[in-house]
Please model this.
Amino acid sequence: MSTPLSPNLRGALFMTLSMAAFTLNDACVKLVAETVPLFQVIFLRGLGTTILLAIFVQMTTGLRPSWPRRDRPLIAGRTLAEIAAMVTFTLALTNMAIANATAILAALPLVGTLGAALVFGDKVGWRRLSAICIGFVGVMLIVQPGTDGFNIWSLLVLLSVLVITARDLFTRAFSPAVPTMTVAVLTAGAVCLVGGVLSLFTPWVALDLREAALIAAAAVLIIGGYVFGIMVMRVGEVGFVSPFRYTSLIFALILGLVVFDEFPNALALIGGVIVVSTGIFTLLRERMVARASRRSAAKAAITPGAPHG
Model:
């Protein structure tokens, strides 16, 4: 008789599956964009994603296309940031090694921690600040400015890290009344629409069976990434599960080597290890700080107050 997985192990499995789905989606887009204009791919994938996601949400939580007035500018800002992330990352992805692009994206927890400190006033101690600085050194080793390996596409991935961080900060500012999955459907539709508009600037091409299958697979994989990402939030401890997001780099390295005959150079590999290590440290440190804060709050709550005179 098999022993059921603990909540933490199930959360780690769901996170790994989510990262696998998103990375495989990137590989599908990169493959099909070799023969089909990129924004035609983005539009067709977005159309499939929006329809499938809308059906999934309607069958589970139900579409709720209404939100408080105060949240509407935040939702608009998040949508624009998502569109900017789509344009910058997919343009870079189709012009550079998938593992290098994924390794630069691994800096997201570092930039997110810094962004939360600047925007929301989150306290960040010297340990996490040091990890952020060291992590940025790792990013520079991947980007390699001033060398023959440096190009504009690496800068576009860095820009996508910034706009994804902005997207996450907008999301954090939402009130609890905002229906998260309905916003996801709205965002997918907006990305699809922008992809359709941009696709008009290049001639469309007829799809063969392989190209159509890759685009359909990309749409399904994005939904899988979303669904497993939702399941992650429902089981396990965030601090235990979050580091498993870095499995995306392992998948990207394997896909890059097997599918695209790409492999990062030694400096980029060292940079990737640094970014992942500092990111994991930052996530674990945030977990420790949150636990200490909860213990302090609980202790303060049970400590008798001073008598009133």
